[in-house]
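Let us practice reading a record.
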Amino acid sequence: MREVRLDQVLERLPSGLPLPVACWVIGRAASAIAARPRVLTPADLRIREDGAVRVDTTDAPIAFGYKAPEIIRGGGETPRSAVFALGAILVEALTGRPAFTRMTDMETRIAVVEESVARLHGRVAQASPALDQIVARALAKQPNDRFASTVELAEHLDGFLDDELHEVGPSETAAAVAAALQGADVREAVQRATNRPVPASPEPIQEAPPQEPEPEPEALPRPVPTPPPP
């Protein structure tokens, strides 16, 4: 079955994926690496034409923009550094722009260690303070302030989607990717794939049949005045 890398999809979407699709894709990737957490980049996430998400890492060097601060300082990979990378990918999927990547490697390393990502609420459609809290925790500078595992991150993303009543899954993801590759309207494609029932039309108001006007009452004859007696 054909598949496409997430970075290839984002190259065609300057504003990023629709929020529900982006959160769902990252949640699936987070679950996929639960048994062997590792630092990922968008090129490691593969989306199949049926909307399923899988992870396929390569031996290519990992860009600094996805490495957690402790790795930048010389530490090794941990489940919490994998959470950081997924948080950075999530921001990129939502905005269309890398979270920390700058003009040079040095500037990127400084951004990872010192800079915070601007909140999404108010600049990304459908983003709420609840999503900002998830992103902030995933990208916390101190490892112990992050989610303990990628599974925990996936659970919070899925909980967010449920709480905010976002309907999303493989069909919406497949529609978004297909539309992006074809240059079509991604958000419209996702809406169609969601297949929400059309609200029932209200019952038409039954108008009462027109009534014939009631006949006006006949005027009573005026009394004839009685002449006075002589």
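A brief commentary: Residues 142 and 219 are 98 Å apart (CA to CA).
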